[in-house]
Amino acid sequence: MKYILLSIILFCFTILPATAQVRLEGRVLAATTRQPVTGATVTLAGTKIATVTSRDGRFSLEAGAGKYVLHVRFIGFKPYSSEVTLPPKTEGLILLEEATNELSEVTVSTGYQELPAERAAGSFVKVDHNLLNRRVSPDIISRLEDLVPGLTINRIAASNPNDQTQISIRGQSTISGRPDPLIVVDHFPFDGSIDDINPNDVESITVLKDAAAASVWGAKAGNGVIVISTQKGRFNQKPQVSFNSSFTGGGRPDLYYQPRMSSSDFIDMEKYLFSKQYYKTAEASTSHAPLSPVVELLTAARDGKIAADEADRQIEAMKEYDLRNDLRTYFYRNSFNQQYQLAVSGGGEGQRYYISGGYDRNLANTRGNQFSRLSFTASNTYRLLSGRLQLSPSVFFTQTKEGQSTALNDVQSKPYTTSITYPYARLADENGNPLAVTRDFRQDFVGSAEEKGLLSWEYRPLDELALSDDHTKAGDYRINLGLRYTILKGLSADLLYQYRHELSEQRNLHSQESYYTRDMINKFTQVASGGTLTRPVPRGAITADNISRQNGQNLRLQLNYNYTLNGSELSGIAGYEIKDLGTLASYTLRYGYDQEHAKAAVVDYLSPYRLYYSTTGSTSYIRNADNETDLTDRFISYYANAAYALKKRYLLNGSVRLDRSNLFGVKTNQKGVPLWSAGLGWNLSNEAFYQVSFLPYLKLRATYGYNGNVNRSISAYVTARYDAGTSTDSKLPYATVVNPPNPELRWERVQVMNFGADFASAKNRVQGTLEYYRKKGTDLIGRIAVAPSTGISAYTGNFADIKGSGLEVSLHTQNTTGRLAWSSDFLFSTARDKVTSYGATSLTTQYLQSGYSGTAPLEGKPLYAIYSYAWAGLDPATGDPQGYLNGEVSKNYSQIIGTATPATLAYNGPSRPQVYGSLRNTLSWRNLSVSASISYRFHYFFRRESVRYANVLAALGGHGDYAERWQQAGDEAFTSVPSMPAYGTSGITNRDNFYLYSAALVEKGDHIRLQDISINYALKKAALPKLPFNTVQLYGYINNLGILWRKNKAGLDPDYQTMLPVTTFAAGLKVDF
Amino acid sequence: MKKTILLLLSVLAVALISCQDKFLEAKPDKALLVPATPDDFQALMDDAFTMNTMPGLSIISDGDYSISDAGWKAFSVPYVTNSYIWAEQIYEGQGVTDWSMPYQQVFNANIVLEGLGKLDRGAVGDQRYNELKGSALFYRALAFFNIAQTFAAPYDKSTLAATPGIPVRLSSDINSPSSGGTLQETYQQIEHDLLAAMPLLPDRARPANRPSKQAARAFFARMYLAMEEYDKAERYADSCLKVQNSLLDYNNLDTNSTRPFPAVFSGDNPEVIYYLVLRGNSFTVSSLATVEPLLYDLYQAGDLRKKLFFRDRGSGIYTFKGSYNGANTIAGTLFGGFATDELYLIRAECYARRGEKELAEKDLNTLLSMRFKSENFAPVHTADAGSALERVMLERRKELIERGLRWYDLRRLNKDPRFAVTLRRVVDGTTYTLPPNSARYTFPFPDDEIKAGGF
């Protein structure tokens, strides 16, 4: 603050009139809260007279009598000026208006230029430092949730494998391309992991939503752009040191949230299946296929190896166990995240700097999973050649270490019948000693392994946690150099260069004691005719090293032009950009690894070995997974952008861009796509005729243009991929086709039209933005099922058009002012989309199955849509599910499924919310402020999970709805879960599929949740002079508080069907020295 | 200063712009290629997993093997469950690789043929060029033939022009519609491709997944047999055996071994001419599926095949272990390729059909002498050509078990009252039958093909 004052003083110079001095006294208060403003600069224009307001906001000046212009300035407030006449008649009371959310002051960043929001016609949303820091999280991206209209985080994860950030801006504009928005850090697209960015180093984020805002990014902007601006120092600022630290903790997740078939039901089912000879296949297995402990007991009792009553007793005892208890105790823990950051910033006349270091350490709520990050940032700016040359070097360095354990996943999904662990598995005895669990083979086979000279073949999940070490170490540094040279007044040239290097090393070491390694060694153990054992996979650990190096270079040359004449302003940029990103990754698998001496053994990949467990002499090769990938990503772009503001009233924006890339198998002259945009704005309130006193600020804007999407995975030519062929019988190298030829391939384009209005009421009590957009994706690339007789099962090409529209409202209201200030921020967004053309139809079942993945688009419907079979209730006599066939109630499932067409399916609605937003209320009293954020999502559907009898009857267990099933006549009154078919009934799969995809399980997703609460208490030196710091902020944050209201009666959180997010509590401290 | 910087900037800009075309030529992924060179084409055809597979669905339906009710109920794939009971609709909406994989072969073959068209024959070299072209034609013809034996009606000269065929795709352009012509057109295309391939192929090929003249002769013999053109079948079987007539002496094999036959790529089985794998499914790999007891009993005492083909698993279950894919294959896959034993049987059948009883007996005895323990072998003697034919058919069934050929034979022989059989199965208390010449001898086109192909 003092430096701003200093600079103001420096620029204010005049000659003092030699008259008698009179005193001017006054008080400066904040307009909304009526709190005194301490430290504000008070100057008389044209003089050197200046002062700073005291603790209670008072100031006093002495000057000669006469007329002056009084300026009061303070950061965070609008500058104030008024005419005063000395000597004054009364003590002046000056109300400073807060500048937060002051539209005219906001500068947005596109990554190519800083732009005053006032002069922009496009749709920009800026989120500042304070708002970003309201949330406590190790990453930056999740902090954007509920802050930007139109931006959502898709919670139903993994719905689209391309989706890395899970963020959608204004819905999705592509079908098979990357749906993520482009993330830009300062000037260049960020190719590293977004987790590498320390959120404390972020100054602000600008989200570019429409064509006019984003089209400067051209072919990468189709899904919107998120521009992250990092912290910088300020010129003429004394060094400022700040320290920030926070701790976040959370409990174990609720493993019982998703109902599962109970151990008791599961065991009863095993007994039933046993009585039906179901396990005969496994018993006759040629590979000692495993039987669960209950089935082992039943088999032993049948064969007279154990007394029937003893077997029964043991089986009954197993009904009491629930694997989830053990998982909760031994595999889950409380999560705990720590974050520390120290930053120093400041600057002199010709230089500014920002240096920070941060350390994060996160322990996830599953054991063996942790993450730590060390980050370092230094950025400098030098003004040289009397300010004509500006040089900005900066360095970013991040080192992360992530530990991941597959032990939990293994115990949940790997063992027994290859897909589940029996629910009554015990991981530890009463004393906590690890117990063995049946996994790949029968008990007797496993039990006799050691006496036959093999390694132990027992699987003890609890031991596994410590026996494998899977961690990734990654170091990422970016070196940036910026040069700006002012050629003429208003004309400057930029040269920006970035070099980025990332080295990521993953080592997955399975020690010799781990099940993975013992199993591998045992499997390949060979028995010679004399009975001697040899081990083609030698003793020792097995390690997999996955090393990836990424080198990226970006270079940009840009000319900037600014010209002001008679209050009209023309500004423009034009530039050329080139990018080269190379990724070289290698994967190495080593056997017989000796950690002590870093030595691996040589194994024979080329000979087939008889598998020890196979009674038929099946053979296998030792897996050779050594592999190298070499990827190159290149771009050349030309762009230009101009904005003209006529007398601060009429705005005209335009941009053009051409991108070219090294798409494979495309002729160079076809690699480019030109994209453009145009925008108009009207600052209506600047017109002389505008006299609306309740709405002193009003701006209207409209834009139109095109963004693009790159899909680098496809080609116009047939492409194939080489394989060395070492794993085949013939050992010949071979190639497989990955992409059929498509000579008509084009780039995706998204046409966007945007209309907006920005307004503010008197004294900014109500401020807001209203936007409406329409967009049209054309030539979108889609994957469609084609007749298998073409030789290709699915084909990718420019098949699709998509249409979207939405309304976005953002309102900030200052509800009360004074000691207790209450403000509200309300966001409301709608995002409707419709596939308007799609080149092909999918199988009817695919429409039902792809509700969350969007892989089977249907014309006239949203991309992500839920369909179902019409439901006619349960048959009161049998509990069978009933549907409709040719208008009649029917149980002919194969016909219902076989004859269903997209037209006969019931369309329930979109699976992504079409209406969403948030309401955040902030209360401030003195130095304390509390805010709570409520978010809502409406107008979407989800499919509830339920029991699949084909799995139940295959002894795989299933959903807890099993207990709710129809069991006797009359049950249909209160359940829609069908009865269990008898074992061996034909057509169970069809019956299941009909029920699971019927309307009975489709629910409305509408809900309102209390997302979080944030508490902030600030102590300022100005108020507490004894304080050894400038400011101390104490903050608390509670996240994921839960659902307040939901439409569905099943008590489900529509966004989390398998596991609820855990409520976390954070506390932190920020000190500015 | 100003001028220097401006100059530098413009030099840099010009330098960057002038070299950008080369800059954008870099491959995005080094492992990718646009198949354009002879090596690329060879690599596409050496993808044996794709290129050397034939449909295996018929193994479920041909009646040689059966499974207990419990085993049948445990099947989770609809087309396995349904094919076993000869249901009319079998896929329940699922796709089936028995159909799609041969069509991938056709696609790859078309890519090679189209790509070769763009190459300069002289630069490639005549021999190489011919070999590649011949191979592609061979693969395409064999794929069409194999598809037709499962998914098209049996060959019948009288109705050929009116019977629907299979989609015959001669271009890799997937935008061109799939349409099935008549069965006549299907077989004309196969014959045409194979005749064109024959002179281009090398005499014999190593490894066994690559086509050769020998493989083409064996293919012709098998095809003309299915078409009941016995004179042509005999001619090709004969010309094939003239080049390669060696047989594996089963006396030298270890009957106790669970994989008694030499690995197909080792070259140690002198009978193998061409490698082809029957597409596996949960029935073909089931350890509960047993050879029909009546069929098992047909193997007489002293017949080595009784021990070399079958594994006694107790409880009356005899699983198959006689695949010519042999010991070294990764999984227990079934061999459906060409081997000399089949050619002996084809020639013997054709001899018998034209009344050459002695010649037929001679071929049978050449083969059987390698199948029986030397001390137990007694040469076959039959009363007349008719009974010789019957004996050939019996030996054919025993020798070629689990090669996928039983289904071909049922489709062909059911028209002949002497050999017609009704297949019968009792599953879970219900009796299912497949009468001779039933429409269910033709597997329906897969549901996804009908949907997307517009049939």
UniProtKB/TrEMBL annotation, chain A:
A single cellular component GO annotation: cell outer membrane
UniProt cross-references to InterPro entries, sorted A to Z: Beta-barrel_TonB_sf, CarboxyPept-like_regulatory, Plug_dom, Plug_dom_sf, TonB-dep_OMP_SusC/RagA, TonB-dep_OMP_SusC/RagA_CS, TonB-dep_rcpt-like
Domain TonB-dependent receptor plug: 121-225
Gene3D superfamilies referenced in this protein's UniProt entry, alphabetically: Carboxypeptidase-like, regulatory domain (2.60.40.1120), TonB-dependent receptor, beta-barrel domain (2.40.170.20), TonB-dependent receptor, plug domain (2.170.130.10)
Main subcellular localisation: membrane
Membrane topology listed for this record: Multi-pass membrane protein
Keywords: Cell outer membrane, Membrane, Transmembrane, Transmembrane beta strand, Transport
UniProt family annotation: Belongs to the TonB-dependent receptor family.
NCBIfam families named among the record's database cross-references: OMP_RagA_SusC, SusC_RagA_signa
Protein name: SusC/RagA family TonB-linked outer membrane protein
UniProt source species: Pararcticibacter amylolyticus
